[in-house]
Amino acid sequence: MKRITCYLILICSFLCCQSAAAEALAVVAHPSVKTEQLSVKELKSIFSMRLTTWSEGALISVYVLPKQHKLHESFCRNYLEIFSYQLERSWKRLVYSGFGQAPTQLATSLEIKERVANTPGAIGYIREEDVDDSVKTIRID
Amino acid sequence: MTASKLSALTSLLVLFASSAVGAEWPSSVRTHGFFSQGMVYTDENGFVEDDNGWSERQTEIGLNASWQINSDWRMAGQVVYLNGGNRYPEGFRLDYLLLDRLAYRTDTDEVHIQLGRYKNQHGLYRDSRDVPAAQPSIFLPQSVYWDMYRDQTLNTDGVALMGFHQVDAGSLEWQFSGGATDIHDDMEEWVLGKNSSGDYEEDWVVQGSGYYTTDNGAWTMGLSVLRSNLDFHADEGSQAVSGQAYVWESIASIRYSAERWETTFEYIDDQFKLYGLYFPEFRDRSHSDGYYLQVRYFATPSLTLLARYDAKYLNKHDRDGKDFEKQTGAPSYFMFSKDWTLGLTYEVAENWLVRGEYHYVHGAAWLPPHLYPDVEVHDQEYWHLFAVQLSYSF
What we know:
The complex is a heterodimer of chains A (141) and B (394). Chain A is α/β, with parallel strands linked by helices and 141 residues long.
């Protein structure tokens, strides 16, 4: 019994470490974007492709990782506070009904950083450790 | 040339005129598409094929493009090829072709004007109804998404206003639109019977809808109302004579989404006034309704299970069809369809879906033609339907 408890504690601590080790991420935009911070609601409206322009009038280009990517899952859950299937459902609806467009999907955090750095009006999320001067970090509250 | 084709052409012209605005070609053009092939088996009643058994007449192909000309203007279009057996006329259709103008914006709102052929936001699944990846099952619940009236309510040639607003504790999207729908040339056979021929057209349609979603995305609820006038000019020798149908259609929707499952309920109320059609002096009002309750369970990231009950009544004051049987001599089961569905969707590879579903159906209200029930082909009150489908979307 004692041994089982030991194992349980081990497994639990392993799981806790896993979640604590979930990679920190940052929401980044092209340096020309004037917006400094976004609310969760605004972020959700932008990533669900329903708000399509920045305050200054420039078109927003949205970049995301594949739905299987851990960072995407954690972005949906912790930043947008919705499930990734809900986001995907609304993109599909926009794309096939002519109501709007879907975000551009790229394979890695570094690719997103590069594309955001080179596309005026771009926004995306990347690993915190990938952030450098080429992109602007957007505060989320 | 019909008004619809004119408006499509107008959108094209406006597009080329506005290309002078200076677009970033071609990175601002996005293309998407889908393909599906199904196999359908019915033991009775000739769904998809008049003779029962297996049928491969279940194909959906679509290709679309969306061109973001600048931050205010966008052009989009989609062409589809559909083969649904005897569910609706087979062939190519211009699904939408529109010019979208961002008409009003603040930091929390956007309103767009769409001109050309646009899709109606009429129920949760209608605007993407032929796209397997955007649908819960191979066949949509026929109470709300009846194949026979697919063309009348799916897309419209005219003008639509579409809004999105962040509101307290959620977001609201709405659409108001008006125009006329380009109904497929052969559709009168489906609605009025194989011995009817003539021009079956929609004179005009206006539609309004609103959908509210809570901040956590858990609840979506909405209402859509549509009013249209349909007109039939009979050819000489046609079984159905010239006439009109005035339609009021409302759909109430509610959906709850959790991490592992989702449940959807939609109710439709349809009121018709019929003039002529059976004989020149014929006048009638009818009031039909229906609803479905659907549960989807996301068993694994790639496997989704579905269970649904769907009920359709052609006359809500004669739900069991007994009055209809007394008046016409045709069996009462033509006045309703009750469908129990079990289904599964498996994502075998990225963007590839395999679907299977089983329907146990009581009644024949779905089955065409609508005006003159085909008692010879649809001779069973209880019947079974089994379908499998492979689809790809990008």
